[in-house]
Amino acid sequence: MSLLEIDKLKVYFPIRKGLLDRAKECVRAVDGVSFSIEAGESVGLVGESGCGKTTLSRAVVQLIKPTSGRIIFEGEDIANLSEAALRVRRRRFQMIFQDPYSSLNPRLTVLDLIGEALDIHSLVSDAAARRERVEGLLKSVGLDPSHAARYPHEFSGGQRQRIGIARALAVEPRLIVCDEPVSALDVSVQAQIINLLKDLQQELGVAYLFVAHDLAVVEHISHRILVMYLGRIVEAGEAKNLCRSPKHPYTQALLSAVPVVDSESKRPRIFLGGDVPSPIHPPSGCPFHPRCPIAEARCKTEVPLLREVEADRAVACHLVT
Ligand code: SF4
Predict the structure, then answer these.
(1) Which atom belonging to ligand 1 lies closest to the Cα atom of 298?
(2) Could you report the per-residue pLDDT of 191-249, keeping only the tens digit for each?
(3) Any ligand 1 atom below 6 A from CB of 288
(4) In a domain, 77, yes or no
């Protein structure tokens, strides 16, 4: 049994218009996505902004209710649980955000920010145990335990992200959804946070759904990668293999924008025209056809299904066999 199984998940946001406030149209942010994550595995989710990856990641941790589909976590469909039942399970799946500062209450010390998570789930018996646990968590994310009395604004961006990670780890989750956790950080700090997440995974066996727009970052931490375009998965496969030989034209374009050090493996840059189309009126047929450099006539009418084209590689393109 997988730790997490997402089955035909859809998240549509109705757009209300007119005097009667009737929903006439909807934004199809996530449009029938299925994938799974094993215990201790890292799955990267990439795509341009507007492709639905943040909505998908928030639906996984139930910050957004899906329109349809199932979210099976540890064998149980959490998409249809009551708030009270969900509260108990929340301990097992946590989220860290792009901007740790906005997710940390500026009026609380680090001791209370992390201690609050312990209190909610009654994980410590008294104040001394609470302090000891918080100090241990700070140490495990590379922060000085004596800084527990400080406030978030006294830390750098990278340190604040470490506090966010410590807070998520406090409740001993089995899955952490990381929503662009390094996008706002300097490149050198990005590497430190990625390495920290990898070390913590080895030590604790926690699984990650790692969301980012930068394939180079995702490749570094992921065992498998999902490439998302306009609410759908268009390519999925083992991380190194997918980055070495991308098959979907969209993945190829994303990868061609990643700078490579080794000149022999340099790929010609593929420029994608325009932006991601509106998910209110997605293009007919293959949603990528208006931007695809190799589109054919049938791409405008036939929707390509995500299908396995070789071992551990699935692609949604008519021309990939
Ligand atoms: Fe391009 Fe057609 Fe493949 Fe879509 S199905 S990615 S438009 S070639």
Answers:
(1) 2
(2) 999 999 999 999 999 999 999 988 888 999 999 999 999 999 999 999 999 999 999 99
(3) yes
(4) yes
Coil/strand/helix, residue 24: strand
The answer to whether residue 90 is domain-embedded is yes
Beta bridge partners of 96: 178
Q: How far apart are the first and last CA of the chain?
A: 30
Closest by Cα among 269, 254, 173 to 216: 254
Q: Which tens digit of pLDDT belongs to each residue from 40-94?
A: 999 999 999 889 999 999 999 999 999 999 999 999 999 989 889 998 899 999 9
Distance CA(35)–CA(140), nearest Å, equals 31
**DSSP character string of 279-309:** SSSPPSSSTTGGG-TT--GGGGTPPPP-EEE
The residue among 95, 63, 272 whose CA lies nearest residue 180 is: 95
Angle, CA 13 vertex, CA 70 and CA 95 arms, to 5°: 55
Please check whether residue 115 lies inside any domain of the structure: no
pTM, 2 dp? 0.92
Query: What local confidence, expressed as pLDDT, does residue 19 receive?
Result: 62
Dihedral of CA 50/51/55/58: which sign?
negative
Instruction: Give CA–CA dist 35/13, Å, rounded.
Output: 22
What single-letter amino acid sits at 307?
A: R
Mutational test site, ligand 1, from 288, 301, 309, max ligand atoms within 8 Å of CB: 288
Ligand 1 centre distance from Cα of residue 284 (Å): 12
Instruction: Provide φ and ψ at 30, rounded to 5°.
Output: -130, 125
User: What's the 319 CA to ligand 1 centre distance in angstroms?
Assistant: 7
Host domain of residue 42 = 4-102+175-315
- For residue 231, what is the domain's CATH number? 3.40.50.300
Structural domain includes residue 179: yes
Element (H, E) at 234: strand 232-238
Give the number of domains in the chain. 1
Q: With contact defined as beta carbons under 8 Å apart, do 292 and 306 qualify?
A: no
